[in-house]
Amino acid sequence: MKADPFVYTLKEWTEVSMRHSMRNILHYARECGLSMSNLGAIFHIHRIGSCGVTEVGAHLGVTSAAASQMLDRLVQQDLILRTEDPDDRRVKQIALTEKGHRILEEGLHARQGWIDELAQNLSDSEKETIISGLNILIDKVSHLALPIEVRS
After folding, report:
1. Model pTM?
2. How far apart are CA 55 and CA 64, in angstroms?
3. Which CATH number goes with the domain that contains 70?
């Protein structure tokens, strides 16, 4: 059976864009002395505001003990802050510090930096065509069912 040219091209674009994005974020993480798990935790904490150790561990697919050790290092680097949960003092709430927010923003910029270079190599006509197509994709993707996120 012959592959659908649209699906093939979209998969190829996804692969190329992910490769550029991942290469840039990995390079940024190494420069900052962070692992991908560290960045994953920082992005997760940012996305949900504040959370507990167990939730970070579940998101990363590691035990609470492993998550706690990793979070200890992020506390030492002043990227996150641990505070007591006002409802249960045995539970620690994790939130990003100002430095953690800065690292997150710089990481996003590093991950997407290649897009600026790409844009400089496109004509105005090419940009208009791509904008039109991407807006269609954004609209259609917004109607797809999202996978259920595992929470513990």
Report:
1. 0.74
2. 8
3. 1.10.10.10
